[in-house]
Design goal:
Blueprint: H1 16-27
């Protein structure tokens, strides 16, 4: 089971830390 399975995350920013955060959340199962 993933850390963020079934969760929704809103990340602003498409570069730098925003991009890295979005990728990490997606890898963890967030939508």
């Amino acid at each position: 089971m993933k850390d963020f399975d079934g969760k929704i995350a809103l990340v602003t920013g498409t570069t730098g830390i925003g991009l890295a955060t979005a990728r990490r959340l997606a890898a963890g199962g967030a939508a």
